[in-house]
Specification:
By secondary structure, the protein is of the alpha/beta class. It contains nine helices and 18 strands. It is globular.
């Protein structure tokens, strides 16, 4: 896998909008504050042409325009391409991206969350390039940085160790105060199933909602991925809009499609439907009934997903994952 060079002081960050643009609150206020905070951190912040648009269908612009912004970003000089948001229709840019060209260019970092699975995942499987499934641009609105934002910058600067957080939150925003900072108030319990010792492999995954949209398309290169990675894959998965039954069906689909054939471990984040139950199916047995028979370690309710905080993860990187003192620990290889 190609790892981009680590960020240095005064490097440029190019903001892009491959999904939603920054046009409404609280995201606009947060974006402007984040831009200032990243500049205070010593970076030069640049903007792509789609960042402040809302001209597409549930997106900043047309698929062609958003794809052009991404291709120009990978052809450009900024070492970090940072998405300004998730959304709903980022998958529609894929036919207009040239992953062969991206793979031929010097590698650079892309970072984004949720709908940005549609770029993080194929960057690994189609362009052999490591990216970061982590915070989008507007999440850097509170300084000094902490949690995911601090850890994302640490990874981008070369840190090789990362671990989960002590608690989580049920409240991510305050509509009357865009710059309100969430507090970690909920006790966290990670369930470990079949875990006995640290597990090594290559990290791959993202938002399950998006991965299901890729499965079986011409952008599905997981069979080749499995052939090229005999060391095995550590899958990290989280769900946004899916119900417990949707999670169960989705994991069944990916399993039967062969995606998990060389899985070494599963890291399952906190789903938004974490308190829901349908026909006796809940967030727990939706996973264990489908993945449990595979006989590999499974960690449930790790710090990953749309219930903050979500630990940034290097997609396509080799790592050793541990479950120590009730927490998730990553140690990345060089």
């Amino acid at each position: 896998m190609r790892q981009p060079p680590f960020l240095k002081d005064h490097d440029a960050i190019l903001m892009v909008a491959p999904s939603f643009g920054v046009t409404i609150e609280p995201y606009l206020t947060r974006y402007l504050a984040s831009k200032k905070n990243l500049e205070k951190e010593g970076f030069r912040v640049l903007e792509g042409p789609c960042v402040h648009l809302e001209e597409g269908v549930a997106a900043s612009a047309s698929p062609e325009a958003r794809a052009k912004e991404i291709m120009d970003a990978f052809r450009g000089d900024a070492p970090l391409v940072l998405s300004v948001g998730g959304g709903e229709t980022m998958c529609e840019i894929l036919p207009y991206l040239d992953f062969s060209e991206i793979a031929s260019l010097p590698p650079k970092w892309f970072m984004g969350f949720s709908d940005n699975t549609n770029l993080c995942f194929p960057l690994a499987t189609l362009a052999d390039t490591i990216s970061i499934y982590g915070p989008c641009g507007p999440q850097f609105y509170a300084r000094p940085f902490r949690g995911p934002e601090k850890d994302a910058l640490a990874l981008l600067r070369g840190e090789k160790h990362a671990e989960g957080y002590p608690k989580f939150t049920k409240t991510r925003s305050n509509p009357d105060h865009p710059l309100w900072r969430y507090r970690l108030t909920q006790e966290k319990i990670i369930e470990a199933h079949g875990y006995e010792e640290p597990v090594s492999g290559t990290l791959l995954g993202g938002c399950l909602d998006c991965l299901l949209g890729l499965c079986g398309t011409k952008f599905d290169a997981v069979k080749k991925w499995n052939e090229n990675h005999p060391e095995g894959t550590i899958w990290f998965l989280e769900a946004c809009d899916l119900s417990p039954l949707g999670i169960r069906r989705g994991l069944f689909q990916l399993k039967e499609a062969g995606w998990f054939d060389n899985a070494n471990m599963f890291l399952i984040g906190r789903p938004l439907c974490r308190d829901a139950e349908m026909f006796g199916v809940n967030k727990r047995n939706a996973v264990l009934d489908i993945l449990g028979p595979m006989g590999v370690p499974i960690l449930l309710d790790v710090d990953l997903g749309h219930i903050a905080p979500s630990l940034p993860i290097k997609v396509g990187a080799k790592a050793t994952v541990s479950f120590a003192a009730g927490n998730l620990v990553y140690d990345y290889e060089e």
